[in-house]
């Protein structure tokens, strides 16, 4: 068996409306359905049946701390540095919590929190060096300075 691609992500959220609006309006996911009675919202880019499913659990998240489990989810948003710069400005304008930004040599990333404190990495592929040298993905991480 081999994993071929990331199929979907499911997140428990405390407030379905708030989280679904965030993923649709701030990050631009296409909402397929939202059912407040069932407490779920489904999103897809059209690549597959769904890439993101939100399930409302109706409680406030724990205070943020290091623990085993999910660290972050990465979403590709482009192929050039300008894509990250533009996203950064848009996120700041929308009041999104920005945790930081990194130059990973092959990608440029900005890290944000969704309304429940889940960390998301929005990234642009800025080099295909990893195709010739897979070790490029473990290059030292550098600070990415963004203007906003």
TrEMBL record:
GO terms for molecular function: lactoylglutathione lyase activity; metal ion binding. The keyword Metal-binding applies. Residues 5-125 form the VOC domain. The keyword Cytoplasm does not apply. Signal peptide: none annotated. InterPro entries: Glyas_Bleomycin-R_OHBP_Dase, Glyas_Fos-R_dOase_dom, Glyoxalase_1_CS, VOC_core. SUPFAM superfamilies: Glyoxalase/Bleomycin resistance protein/Dihydroxybiphenyl dioxygenase. Keywords: Metal-binding. This is Glyoxalase.
